[in-house]
Amino acid sequence: MASVLVVEDDRDIRELLRRYLERDGHGVLTTGSGAEALNLLAAGGVDLVLLDLGLPDVDGLDVLAAARDHEPSVPTVVLSARGTVPERILGLRAGADDYVTKPFSPAEVVLRVAAVLARVGGAGAGGGAGASAYGDGRLRIDEPARRAWLDDGELELTPTEWGVLVTLAGTPGRVYSRSELVNRVRGYEFAGYERSIDSHVKNLRRKLGADATAIVATVLGAGYRFGWTRD
Ligand code: CA
Fold first, then answer.
1. pLDDT tier, 61 (very low <50, low <70, confident <90, very high otherwise)
2. How remote is the CA of residue 74 from the centroid of ligand 1, in Å?
3. Which of 104, 142, 164, 226 could form a disulfide with 131 if both were Cys (CB 3.0 to 4.6 A apart)?
4. pLDDT at 18 exceeding the cut of 60
5. Which of 120, 142, 161 is the last residue of a domain?
6. Is there a single domain that holds both residue 30 and residue 74?
7. C-alpha 55 – ligand 1 centre gap (Å)
8. pTM to 2 decimals?
9. What is the mean pLDDT of residues 146-162?
């Protein structure tokens, strides 16, 4: 599962892309703000940016530059209204990996995203990545199969618990705020949902047993992080 960040200030288009990308098996983060996009990029864990260049607060090209300059660099597919030739050239020169002009078919955007991910060998490229192991093999997560095991016992997780675990384990050590977790797991910002993430974490920890708070660690005043390292 690749993590795709959709940066688009038009809410309808944003939600449309989210639905299509999720249906294609991607984890989707969305924002209508270029400033928030810069923060999310800096925080790490984004595999691809789907970027509208015309943003209300920040020049889309600045977001493009931030994605390109990120370590490791994050591939970008640019969305733009009525792609004029100069703009098209500008986008590609600035480091965009592909370019789609509005109005577009969301199915085509999904295909372009998959093609770019395959090209860069991203997490969504398939190729039988299989299970990732953590804590000297004690915890294994097989994302494509959507299964996880702890000490050889398979974990029975709800979709939200699974989303929390996979999100945190995707970048061990990185602190996720509650709102980021909600956005990752549910794919959208939902006011009032932030606190309920705590109850999902509580249930997830119950299933993780004695090492639960070491695996899913609380960072006071900040959120949660995955406390074990990847093998
Ligand atoms: Ca726009």
1. confident
2. 21
3. 142
4. yes
5. 120
6. yes
7. 5
8. 0.53
9. 85
Distance of CA 53 from the midpoint of ligand 1 (Å): 7
179 Cβ neighbours under 8 A, 6+ residues apart: 189, 194
Query: 144 near 183, Cβ under 8 Å?
Result: no
Ligand 1 (ion): residues with CB under 5 Å are 9, 52, 54
Q: For residues 100 and 206, what is the distance between their CA atoms, to the nearest angstrom?
A: 45
Q: Are strands 223-226 and 216-219 parallel, antiparallel or unpaired?
A: antiparallel
Instruction: For residues 25 and 106, state if they share a domain.
Output: yes
In a domain, 126, yes or no: no
> How far is ligand 1, taken at its centre, from the CA of residue 13, in Å?
10
* Ligand 1 center to 146 CA (angstroms): 35
**Within a domain: 221:** yes
Q: 163 and 105 share a domain?
A: no
pLDDT in tens, 86-139: 565 565 666 677 788 887 888 889 888 988 887 665 443 333 345 789 998 899
Q: Distance, CA 81 to ligand 1 centroid (Å)?
A: 8
How is the chain split among helix, strand and coil, in percent rounded to 5? 45, 20, 35
